[in-house]
Amino acid sequence: MDGWDADLVMLQEMCYGQWTLLRDSLEDRPSGNKYDSVWGAALASTSGCAKWGTDTRYGLAIFAKGAPGTINNGSRSVNFLPEETPGEDRILLCARTTVTGRTVRACNTHIDYSYKVIADPDPKVPPTILNNPKAQIHKVADITRGFANGGDPVVLAGDFNQLPKDVDMAPLYAHSGGTGVFQEVDENDKDYFTGVDCPQSGDRCRSGEATAEPGCSPKVSEPGKIDYIFLSYYWFTTVRGDSAACTPGMSDHHLLRGAAAWEH
Questions:
Q1: pLDDT-above-70 percentage for the chain
Q2: Which of 8, 40, 128, 161 could make an S-S bridge to 113, C-beta 3.0–4.6 Å?
Q3: Measured distance CA(90)–CA(88) in Å, rounded
Q4: Dihedral, CA atoms, 184, 222, 88, 118, nearest 10 degrees?
Q5: Distance (Å, rounded) from C-alpha 254 to C-alpha 113?
Q6: Structure pTM?
């Protein structure tokens, strides 16, 4: 946070106790940037969070550079995404906050990594889809598009567990066959332009550096980009992205950093 001088930080799979410790230390630190934050629960309890205190909830957090009050807590929203019950709630956590003196809507999410389908014995009855990443991403796209259409610059980040060219990601991108309102911070790195739909002569592509690879992610068979920082295209320009190192034992993903300039 300090080395990158981050304006916004989005964290997934974070225990409530981890969040409160980090929140309290960053709110009142004697030197360095202060950070305000909000948190949303995705699981009511998980045993791994006991090391951080008696409240073992688990979820998402957003940190914004600035003193307490930088984030408008009255604007905090938690939207539940289509998923299996019982299980981990897949959510979209959003709040209005100030970034470089301007108001943005910051949103954070964690999309399911797999579909779960129950087949009916009657072949005439369609199967029941319990966990549906496509439906989850569609809802995230609809909600954040609404914020953008309402006049808020939107920064959307998270673990989407989908590759950039997957059809499920189309509702987010504002280009390359997408139907959304976003650009992505690593979309112009030509080192990762591949395929006939992503020529080296292009300016941007649904692509990017891998954020998960076998060395850090036990469930990943080959490197792939599954983490994203999206910015609504009308307000932001000159996007840049970088996948930093991962630390085995600390995270199973690479840290994704992004930057952009104001367009409007």
A1: 96
A2: 161
A3: 6
A4: 110
A5: 17
A6: 0.93
